[in-house]
Amino acid sequence: MKKLAFLLLAVLALLPVQAQIKGNSIVVTVEPDHQDWNYKVGETAKFTVEVRRSGTLVDNVQIDYQAGPEMYQDVKKTVTLKDGTLKLTGKMAQPGFYRVDVTAHVDGKDYKGACAAAFSPEQLKPSTVMPADFKTFWENAIKEARYTSLEPTKRLLPERCTKDVNVYEVSFQNVRWNSRTYAILCVPAKEGRYPALLRVPGAGVRPYGGDVWTASQGVITLEIGIHGIPVTMEQKVYDDLANGALNGYWNYGMDDRDQSYYKRVVLGCIRAIDYIEQFTPWNGKQLGVTGSSQGGFLSLATAGLDRRVTCYAPVHAALCDHTNSLQGKACGWPHYFYYNKGKGQEKQIEASRYYDGVNFARLITDQQRGWFSFGYCDDVVPPTTAWATYNTVTGPKEISPYQATWHFWFQEQWDEWEAWLLKELFK
Asked: d(Cα 252, Cα 398) in Å, to the nearest integer?
């Protein structure tokens, strides 16, 4: 009994060490007076700011706040809230988002909250122009890339396999000899023909684990990297590349449509579908593509260029409506022309139109179904561009904004996304 009691005490002593840090005692909220955060142009949105500690209002708290059209806020003030609350109002004379950002200063630390109210977002239109030869440019680029055979490689990853799913690291040639795309392929273990899902990555340099869960539901999944390097190396390799040769890769070659880093990336997505068609037990029917942020853009590009795609799900899609900032409106990441208003960037402006998610969205057909999701508080991918891109699509589509998210997911959003994809892939 003494030994058992000792072991119990030892376990209890370890519990505090294992406890996780989650959230803050200080919370800043900015709440609109419409539950859906949506207003009509000309209406007045009312915002309630609150700063709370452990659920109760903080007295005499100093805050800084900015308010106005997102990315172009024209109201900036510092005030002290006697009872931890503040009432603000905002309105828009044209479709767009009115954003309020609040930073509270408590005990030497800063705590942030925000809200962006939508004004007639269904009327938002993109500014980007589609070049007359946009479709031809990409058709020719795909044709040229296919002169290079895929010459695939395939390596089983036993440690990642389950009783239901076989997992492989694969590679295939992309735009030229020895220019390879690396990926994680997950295939249901049971022999048969299956729908397929291409997963395209957000920005950055990282390894990939593959989508084993979706594969366990009876779907072939292919999760690709975009940098032409294996996707199973140790993390330090990717960190070194992200801080070295690949630092800021999204800017590379952006003064020439043929030299842009993203040309090889977009073509790699099309070659990935070539790989699925030729080297996996795809059923030849349902094929989806999905990703978030940069991956949202790549989802639009792949769906726009490839009619084998039957469904696509971009989440807070980046690289959309680059030139909006030339009109003093919110533009998509990476905000190419925001900081210097496009001065001296004429070549970049022209090249950017060939790498704008809006123009790929314009190519999506009535035979392809889309699901769009994003956050109203996102300060990386402005909801102005997300809504305008959604409005551009003429085919069947659904929209599911999660207003309070920034550039991240809520669990409910993730669950809805997964459920929608499975529904479409098993039609």
From this structure: 34
Beta strands in 33-84 (DSSP E): 38-39, 45-53, 56-57, 61-69, 75-81
Rounded CA separation 322/360 (Å): 13
The type of residue at 426 is F
Got the DSSP string for 121-174? GGG----PPPPTTHHHHHHHHHHHHTTS----EEEE-GGG--SSEEEEEEEEE-
For residues 238 and 207, is the Cβ–Cβ distance under 8 A?
yes
pLDDT tens for 95-121 read 999 999 999 999 999 999 999 999 999
As a whole number, mean pLDDT of residues 402-414 equals 94
Contacts of residue 4, defined as CB under 8 A and 6 or more positions apart, other chains included, come to: none
**pLDDT tens for residues 330-358?**
999 999 999 988 888 999 999 999 999 99
Tell how strand 311-315 and strand 282-292 pair up. parallel
Distance CA 399, CA 371 (A): 6
Q: For residues 121 and 102, give the distance between their C-alpha atoms in angstroms, rounded to a whole number.
A: 23
Supply 268's token pair. Answer: 């790699």
Decide: pTM greater than 0.85: yes
Cβ(326)–Cβ(341) below 8 Å = yes
Residue 219 gets which letter from DSSP? -
From CA 425, how far away is CA 417, in angstroms rounded?
12
